[in-house]
C-alpha cells in the first residue's frame, strides 16, 4: 500500500528511495543534520545526488503504532495536491519503519516565529494574517474539496512551516483521518496536542471537522497574543491560552492580551475582527463554530481589506476602538464553560496519540 501511494502521490510522481540514498543524503543520519525532533522520531536535512535539499522523517524506534502512523501519513498525502501543503517526495521501504521524504522548508515553523523573541519582533501583523489565511485555506480544502474529506487532527503552530517569503505550508498528517463522505462524525481515540485539543472531542471521542476549527482558533489566538497555547510558567488561570483568552474577552479586555508589537502597528480593526473570529472557533460546542471554509473566507476578506474598500469598515472600526478600550459593555461573548522545530513535521510535546 505504501509503495503504491508513493508512486501515485502527485502529478510529478513521488519516488521510492533506497536506504543507501537516504543514508548518503543525511550523512548516515548524523546529529548535525537534525532539524526537528518529536514524539514520532527525528527529521534530518538531506542533500540528494542532484543537490535537491530534502527533509527525511525517521522513526525513533520500530513500533507498530509508529509504523501505522507513517503509513497513514503516506496514504493521506497521496490524496492531497495543494500548494500550501508540504510536498511529499517519496519514501524508503527497505528499513523496518518507513522513511518519509519531503521538500525542505528553510524558514522554520510558525511556532518559532511567534514565540522566538528575535523572530517575533519582525513578524508583522500583515504577515501573520497572511499566514493565517493560507493555513485556513488548506484546512478548508481538506474538509470541503478533498475526496474523501480529510481531518488533520493535529492543527497547531508547530505544524505550519514557512518559506523564506513567509508562504505558509501545513505539515504532519500522521494523525489525519480520511472522513467517510456519508458521515458527519467519526468515533475515534482522541489524538492531538494539549492546548489545541477540542474539548468536545476530548469528552465524546467524536471527531468532526469542527475539531480542526477549534485547534485553528487556538493558532489564531497565538498569532494575536504571542503566547503559547499551554504554559505552566504562567499563573494557573492563564495556563490554557484558549480559556484565558475567552475569559479576557468576556471582560472586554482584549488589549490586555494582545501582542504589543502588533498593537503598535495600528490595526485595531483587523485585530478585533480576528479576535472575534477566534472566539467563534473556540465555542465549546462544535455546532456553534464556523466551518473552516467560512473561517478561510473571512480571513482572506480581512487580508484584502487593506487593499480594497470594504463597506463595513466604519462600523467595525468603531467596534474595534470600543472593545480595545474596554468600554463596549454591550459586546456579548458566548464563551460557554469547560476546559477545554526548525522543521515542524511532527508534534513536539504535550501530545496525545490515538488510532
Q: First CA to last CA: what distance?
A: 18 Å
Q: Would you tell me the overall average pLDDT?
A: 84
Which series of helices and strands comes N to C? HEHEEEHEEHHHEEEEEEHEHHHHHHHE
Largest sheet: 6 strands, mixed
**CATH first level of the largest domain: which class?**
Mainly Alpha
Strand order of the largest sheet: 1-5-6-4-3-2
Strand content: 5-15%
Q: Point out poorly predicted stretches.
A: 309-349
- Secondary structural class: alpha+beta
Give the quaternary arrangement of the chains.
Answer: single chain
CATH topology annotation of the largest domain: Transferase(Phosphotransferase), domain 1
Helix content: 25-40%
Radius of gyration: 20 Å
Name the CATH architecture of the largest domain. Answer: Orthogonal Bundle
CATH superfamily of the largest domain: Transferase(Phosphotransferase) domain 1
State the domain count: 2
Would you report the number of β strands?
14
Looking at the structure, what is the overall shape?
globular
Domain Protein kinase: 29-311
Membrane topology: Single-pass type I membrane protein
Protein name: Serine threonine kinase
Subcellular location: Membrane
Could you please describe the fold and organization of this structure?
The protein is α+β, with helices and mostly antiparallel strands and 355 residues long. The chain has 2 domains: 2-103, Phosphorylase Kinase, domain 1; 110-344, Transferase(Phosphotransferase) domain 1 (Transferase(Phosphotransferase), domain 1), CATH 1.10.510.10. It is 39% helix and 14% strand. It has 14 helices and 14 strands. The chain has helices spanning 2-8, 19-25, 64-77, 110-115, 117-120, 125-144, 199-204, 209-225, 241-250, 254-257, 260-263, 268-281, 292-305, 313-324, and strands at residues 15-17, 34-38, 41-47, 53-59, 88-92, 99-103, 150-151, 160-162, 168-170, 177-178, 186-187, 192-193, 206-207, 351-352. The strands form 5 sheets. Strands 1-5-6-4-3-2 form a 6-stranded mixed beta sheet. β3 (41-47) and β4 (53-59) form a beta hairpin. α6 runs antiparallel to α8, α8 runs antiparallel to α12 (268-281) and α12 (268-281) packs across α14 (313-324). Mean pLDDT is 84; it is low at 309-349.
